[in-house]
Amino acid sequence: MSAPAVELRGVSVHFGRTVALRELDLTVGRGEALALLGPSGSGKSTALKAVAGFVRPHTGRVLLSGEDVTDLPPHRRGLGVVVQNYALFPHMRVADNVAFGLRARRMPRRQVEERVSEVLSMVGMADYRRRFPRELSGGQQQRVAIARALAIRPPVLLLDEPLSALDAALREEMLAELLRLRGELPDTALVYVTHDQGEALALADRIAVMRDARLVEVGPTDQLYHRPRTEFTASFLGAANLLPVEVVAAPGDGPATVRLAGAEFRAEPTGGPVAAGARAALGVRPHRVEVRTDGGMPARLLAVQWRGTGFRLDLELDGGTPLRAEVSSVDGLPPVGARVGVSIPDGCPLVTTGAGG
Amino acid sequence: MTAVAASVPAVTRPTRVRRRWASVLWLLPPLVVVLGFFCYPLALVLRQSFVTRSGEVSLAVWQQVVTSPEFTAALGRTVLLSLGATAGCVLLGTFLALVLAFAPFPGARVVSRIVDAVLAFPSFLIALAFTFLYGSAGVLNAALGGQGGGPVDFLYGPWGVLLAEVTFYTPFVMRPVLAAFAQVPSAQLDVAASLGARPALVLWRVALPEAWPALASGACLTLLLTMNEFGIVLFVGAKDVITLPMLVHTKGIVTFDYPAACVVAVVNVLLSVALYAAHRWVFRVLGAGRSGEGRRGAVPNPA
């Protein structure tokens, strides 16, 4: 079995007295796409910089294809890096930007030309090779940045919030472009730093959720979405409502029975075994909450926001628990301030309160 | 539209005249200052350069001065010294800026502030300090004499002037280059390194090109200032180092040959104006190149 493309073993990074990354253990397989997902200051960019060699770990080791590169400078690691603000060299034309890494490697001129044409075609920028970065739009600049990183044919491509500087429409377009590129580069491992769960879900095979310089949870994308083990993952990935419930019955490895506002539900204990009588949090995605005029758990409708494709409802269960719901239509619902009925489906993930943050 | 136009009272001719006179009045004070304190003395110098000692107006003084070996030697020495000092300042200033910007060390901020402080000093102070350090009776020669070593005697020649000018004018290059380096995003340097470029290549191909306009501007300014440098040359007291400003001083103050002094001064002014024009041109060309204006094939940003 071949060594993983990237391996971090107990990597900690300190900036003075600030701990930016705390004992991170993580592997990325060959050809795998891993998203590092978390809010600002969670340590995800620092982890990427540790892989790239831009920061030196205080403790721990960084391995690329099984080789310890902790002490190697960035120029000897052979990785492709794409950053949020593109970091194109403003005094060089597009072709020279893309050729930079190849020339640094002293590749023969003819091969440089061929490779530059190849990667510029790959990202749809072949017609722009004579332009300067300032003559390109944000999306075009990011395509050039990706082409520049791919030109050196890196085994690992590191992307640090590559779409953050783009507007919503361009972001969608570039996301589709990245997905297409992934298909064309099946052997290239991808480490994708983002705070946008949509990007992570669309692009990654696995997601590593980070918070406060720590790894909270890592797992396959669908598993993390449907069966989060922590409150933080449940709320950050999919913006689930975290409803405080009491565990009524917990048979062991099967679904547990929980009580919320007088009603009982069956829930999946995804955060490990729970005991009857314990307090836990039920992760309920807003789109799974059903709101009716009568029946179900009694609640009060506090606010309605139109979101274009649907409506977001802010509710409050009897007892004061806030609840957010997303519905496609508000036809038939009473006005804001009125009492409504709420239904929550069985099978929602149940996580231990306080687990992982 | 017609109604609006009709409701706005037309600007009458007397009002327009009053406004024109008001703008002329505002222009007058600075114009008087510039003409009285700058143009008029220059015009006097220019006029005087064409008047012989006997009071005749002719080109005789010009012919006599410009063809004299003394003048050509001074002109050559001035150009050589200023070019040498500028080259030294560019090398040293760029090196210091690189170190301060990209290899920060404890106390780098203090060093930067000290360099800034040099900008506030008068130039002769450097020459004076050099006399105390490297002069015949300076610290260095006293120390060497105590060890039985021979005297070091470079200060009273072109090399002494060159060293003093490089020391004094280096901040004029370093400061703008340092500011330019500070504008280079660290992400560009990181990405360049990740692409396989060694630190030297990153500096040469990524950081330095970003600083070219600042470097060119600093170099032009230094060339301009060193060409007119007087205090350092005078205070170093190098007998053989006669530059154009020193020649003006000698002709005008020492030998009282005022017309000849005016000729040299006019040449010095013309050189300075030409250099300033070159400085503006370089800055405009580099600036336009970086902003995309005036570049062939440049197209507007589609974003």
Automatic annotation (TrEMBL), chain A:
Coiled-coil parts of chain: none
Domain ABC transporter residue range list: 6-237
SUPFAM superfamilies in alphabetical order: MOP-like, P-loop containing nucleoside triphosphate hydrolases
Gene Ontology MF term list: ATP binding
Alphabetically ordered keywords of this record: ATP-binding, Nucleotide-binding, Transport
InterPro entries in the cross-refs: AAA+_ATPase, ABC_SmlMolc_Importer, ABC_transporter-like_ATP-bd, ABC_transporter-like_CS, Mo/tungstate-bd_C_term_dom, P-loop_NTPase, Transp-assoc_OB_typ2
Record PROSITE patterns: ABC_TRANSPORTER_1, ABC_TRANSPORTER_2
Pfam hit, one: TOBE_2
PANTHER family: SPERMIDINE/PUTRESCINE IMPORT ATP-BINDING PROTEIN POTA (PTHR42781), SPERMIDINE_PUTRESCINE IMPORT ATP-BINDING PROTEIN POTA (PTHR42781:SF4)
Identification of the protein by name: 2-aminoethylphosphonate transport system ATP-binding protein
Protein source organism: Streptoalloteichus tenebrarius (strain ATCC 17920 / DSM 40477 / JCM 4838 / CBS 697.72 / NBRC 16177 / NCIMB 11028 / NRRL B-12390 / A12253. 1 / ISP 5477)
From TrEMBL, chain B:
Protein name: 2-aminoethylphosphonate transport system permease protein
Signal peptide feature range: none
NCBIfam families per the UniProt record, alphabetical: PhnU, PRK15050.1
The UniProt record lists the keyword Transmembrane: yes
The entry's keywords: Cell membrane, Membrane, Transmembrane, Transmembrane helix, Transport
Pfam families according to UniProt: BPD_transp_1 (PF00528)
Record membrane topology: Multi-pass membrane protein
Stretches assigned to the ABC transmembrane type-1 domain: 75-279
Annotated InterPro entries: AminoethylPonate_ABC_perm-PhnU (IPR017636), MetI-like (IPR000515), MetI-like_sf (IPR035906)
CDD domains hit by this protein: TM_PBP2 (cd06261)
Residue intervals passing through the bilayer: 21-43, 79-102, 114-134, 154-174, 214-238, 258-278
Family the UniProt entry places it in: Belongs to the binding-protein-dependent transport system permease family. CysTW subfamily.
Main location: membrane
Sections of the chain in a coiled coil: none
Entry's localization field: Cell membrane
